[in-house]
User: Fold this.
Amino acid sequence: MISPEAKAEIEHWLKKFPPEQRQSAVIPALKAVQKDNGWLSREMMDSVAAYLGMSPIAVYEVASFYTLFDTSPVGRHKIAVCTNISCMLRNCDDIVQHLKKRLGIDWGQTTPDGRFTLQEVECLAACGGAPAMQIAGDCHENLTLKKVDAILDALE
Amino acid sequence: MLINQVCLRTLNLDQPWSLESYQSVGGYSVWRRILAEKVTPEAILAELKLSSLRGRGGAGFPTGLKWSFISRNSPGQKYVLCNADEGEPGTFKDRDILRFNPHQVIEGMIIAAYVMNASVGYNYVRGEFSESFKRVEHALQETRELGLIGKNILGSGFDFELHNLAGAGAYICGEETALMESIEGKKALPRFKPPFPANFGIYGRPTTINNVETFASVPVILQHGGRWFLDMGTANNGGTKVFSVSGHVNKPGNYEVPLGTPFKTLLELAGGMLNGDKLKAVIPGGSSVPILPANIIMDTNMDYDSLSKAGSMLGAGSVIVIGEKTCLVKVLARISHFYYEESCGQCTPCREGTGWLARVLARIVAGEGKIADLDLLVSVAGKIAGRTICALGDAAAMPVQSFLKHFRDEFEYHIIHQRSKVTA
Assistant:
């Protein structure tokens, strides 16, 4: 169930912790399997539990606690838009409206072609470049409607 | 005024994050000198105490004192931990210190490990900070190649291994014991204290945890002396502080200035008010600290004691500048929504109370509020504050109490007229 690449990734992280603390690698392990599949199915979480010697419930708890994990299918690109105070002061509402209109979806939804999921997120610590959004680890700052369009056009 | 002298001292160099840039300003000279001259941990602690460095993550606890809580001769594994899980709305300094000066954080952690005789350290980087994580990862590789971390460092007999970790999205991990739970592979629920981390930290072992900016200040303090650092600031508020300025200013960004710098000066550095608007209010230390109206903040200096006297807090130095055309009802509703989203759910007053605050404020914004809601908000906030395991409950309560203290008329107008006093 866990791909050889994901296993290698998990082993890399396990080296950072004392040998008897395998559970410490659960966050990077879930990231590794999520990267393979796009989201975390119950079977995948069970595989992680078995691999790290954890009870499945302890893995579900972690997967549902942290926001970077998806326990249901999402689009190929997750667009995470900050709407917190500093972005709000710099008119993130305009960016949000534009994104919802262009994609034809609301918060938490995925476009019918499976390309984009739109997420409202909390402060990305990019307040100096507000308004800001994040896609696959890349933080895009000082957003304008034009800039947003260019970023989305470049994504498959 | 000289800016960016400590944590951001490489910022004006080409590739500020490179080993070459860091070494050109004296980077790793302190660590090499400590090993070569066998500087004692006591001497290092004395310099830190003299510098009056206080924790830069928000609590402001004296660093030298914190480091002296762990007995270096106690048996067994000890840990040094860097809290790089920056998430307080309005705060963006640690992300930049890690991106632009990763080596200095590493050197600060190495020195902490030496003082406490800890052989393992973790840098817990917020999950969203992929660029910061990569910079630290690369810097660690370089430090290892120089032999400045690892086994038997430069033949000293001292071992220290430093690992870079990444979170997965949870504001509460910024709470130090929640962060430890997260490293142990669990939901990040803050622990009841005591016992404190100095006695019972990661895996139940003695642990010292500090903020990124705190660690990054240490090598510079030891390079130039505690007195040098202290004299840049004011008594009991030694040194410089990185202020993250955001909101309605022309040049938002990080500005590292001496503690005690007048707010007016900081505002000028940040290019003044956007569109020449009038200043309405400032949240001076991140979304959780009390808001201050323009007339108060314009006469206040940016340091722990002055801001406390003015009725707010320095917090993480996250200065959110708010212009006159802003609806503060909407701002408070957004802040309360944040704490509702991020409450871990462990303590009933916070789990339930943050939801009450967020829902009542949302209905006021929507024009469905009642005047009695204002007393209800203050009452709910008062029932959260001081009744929870960690400070998130207080963080949710303080904005509500302070917005209503200073701007109650704006809330009343919004309820009576069912629209904003400002943006209508």
Notes: Residues 106 and 114 of chain A are 14 Å apart (CA to CA). The first strand of chain A starts at residue 77 and ends at 82. Chain A touches chain B at residues 16, 18, 21, 23-28, 30-31, 52, 54, 58, 61-62, 65-69, 83-86, 88-90, 122-130, 134, 137-139 (CB under 8 Å).
